[in-house]
Amino acid sequence: MPSSPTSSNVPASSARSDRQYIADFAASQYVSGIFSISNAQLGRTKTDKPFLKCILRDKTGEVSARMWSIDQDHFSRIPSDGFVYIEGETQPYQGELQLILRVIDATEVSDEMLRDLLPVTKRDIEQMYAEVLSLLETLEHPAMKGLAKVYTEDAPLMTAFKRAPAAKSIHHAYIGGLLEHTLTLMNLANVICPFYPAMNRDIVLFGLFIHDLGKTRELVYDRTFAYTDRGELIGHIVDGAIMLGDRVQKLMSTQGIRPPVGLLTVLQHIVLSHHGVPEFGAAKLPATPEAILISCLDNLDAKAAMSLHAARPDRGENAPKNFGGNFTEKNFALGTKLFKLNPLDPA
Q1: Is a pLDDT exceeding 50 seen at residue 172?
Q2: pTM above 0.85, yes or no
Q3: What's the whole-number mean pLDDT along residues 106-119?
Q4: Cα angle at 125 between 215 and 301, to 5 degrees?
Q5: For the chain, what are the domain ranges?
Q6: CATH fold of the domain at 12-116
Q7: With contact defined as beta carbons under 8 Å apart, do 215 and 327 qualify?
């Protein structure tokens, strides 16, 4: 095997802006360069030979990769989550492209190269954040307005909120994904709440703003996407409820505002229940109208994003819309294969 390239001796084509991006991959294409790697695992073939399976990513998307000939010593030098130099060819497999690797080695990358290697939202991050602030300004109750101020004046938290992905891999798994997901939910609630006059809009909007903020502690997203020790041991749902309790104490100590009796409990319940059911991580079943609405909206946006990412990924302007067939392989998060074609698309 060749020696592992570093940020100082990477092949020039890997570091330039004309690098090969995953969104532009075509079938039977030779690929070389540096990509982020996640979920690297050592599997066994039907003949009991070891093989590597992993996900490779860059700022444009992700691709499943396999290396059919690899030994334990070589595998141990490959990061489970990090960056690698690879060489290989693309091939169609079950309606999708996969990458068959001939070379893979761990490598280090510069901060400048990270902009090409980590997936990022296509939307303007500062504009999205300004929209979130604008929606928070419409809160009416003094305690809710004050609590929102406690959160938004926490500069390190808001910096992390703007940068964090919404998940490691399932949905909105890109820089700015948490912000984009949160803004979408708040905009949906802003439209839906008037249809239910008895629903407390302040609680719904604020609950959506904070429901996933624990992910700023749960996930690592400065080098690649992975879980922190705190994320593995506590998780964003419980951590979000802890963060809320701390900030209510700060609301009382810095602004002299004491929340109405039961408000903290109701808001913590939203954070603890927004995944809907225990098998998806909820600590409690949603048990207030606002918690039920938030859980439904969260599920709606996550599943809509997952289905579009699987069925209609951005493969570049020249890629056929039914590349690899009319159906995806089974999406285990959604429990089904997905039909790719939109019959109203121009021919």
Answers
A1: yes
A2: no
A3: 85
A4: 55
A5: 12-116, 121-307
A6: OB fold (Dihydrolipoamide Acetyltransferase, E2P) (2.40.50)
A7: no
